[in-house]
């Protein structure tokens, strides 16, 4: 892995650690204010007020640390959501089930900054039109989710090789099962696409997020062969002019194609 990509991964982890620190400091300030109210005013703050104070403290801290807007929203909403669930007296077993499911689907989203985006079926024929038909090729879908893109294209192009890589375990397991049931030869891997060498592929397809496209472009430029194709669905790479833009007539979504050149 190139040094530049190592720096990117460290910064992603840094954002998550900073978020954890903000929540912990916000909690400490809230506990201190609660104790002061008992000591000075001889009055215990209602639990709902305590969670609201923590929400405000975390938002102020995230603003002072100049975190991204979506992190600020999370810091403000997280304590309130915890308070609502506690006051609702929901069974702890429900929490455990929801936690396991969430971890399985949104595995390391804090690090990759890529939420779960399922691809729509109307996209598949549009992608198939840009694939080379005069020769076999190798394509990988990074962040493959439930595997719909790779499986659909593999059926239409049986002489080519298709792969998918997904970091979240539940979507990955479902994609493997789906490939077996539909009898396709698509290979799905559980892991981080940063560990791949893009030089092994003619086409890299990505449906990630605006936060990840710049890092994706750095990796593609460093590793992909001249003439190969990077496809980013819905999210363009900032300050890079695409070779082609496909507009889905069904829903108006844009798909951006970038041919690797010197």
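Sequence proposed for the structure above (262 residues):
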């Amino acid at each position: 892995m190139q040094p530049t990509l190592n720096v990117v991964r460290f910064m992603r982890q840094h954002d998550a650690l900073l978020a954890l620190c903000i929540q912990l400091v916000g909690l400490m300030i809230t506990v201190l204010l609660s104790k002061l109210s008992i000591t000075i005013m001889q009055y215990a703050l209602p639990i709902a007020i305590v969670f609201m104070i923590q929400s405000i403290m975390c938002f102020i801290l995230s603003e002072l640390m100049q975190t991204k807007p979506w992190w600020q929203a999370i810091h403000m909403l997280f304590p309130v959501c915890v308070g609502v669930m506690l006051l609702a007296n929901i069974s702890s077993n429900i929490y455990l089930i929801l936690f396991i499911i969430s971890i399985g689907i949104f595995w390391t989203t804090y690090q990759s900054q890529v939420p779960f985006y399922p691809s729509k079926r109307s996209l598949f024929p549009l992608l198939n039109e840009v694939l080379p038909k005069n020769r076999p090729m190798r394509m990988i879908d990074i962040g493959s989710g439930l595997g719909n893109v790779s499986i659909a294209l593999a059926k239409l192009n049986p002489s080519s090789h298709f792969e998918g890589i997904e970091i979240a375990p539940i979507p990955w397991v479902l994609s493997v099962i789906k490939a077996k049931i539909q009898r396709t030869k698509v290979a799905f891997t559980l892991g981080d696409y940063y560990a791949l060498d893009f030089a092994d592929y003619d086409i890299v397809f990505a449906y990630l997020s605006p936060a990840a496209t710049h890092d994706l472009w750095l990796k593609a430029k460093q590793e992909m062969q001249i003439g190969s194709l990077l496809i980013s669905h819905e999210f363009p790479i900032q300050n890079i002019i695409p070779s082609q833009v496909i507009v889905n007539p069904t829903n108006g979504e844009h798909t951006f194609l970038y041919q690797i050149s010197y």
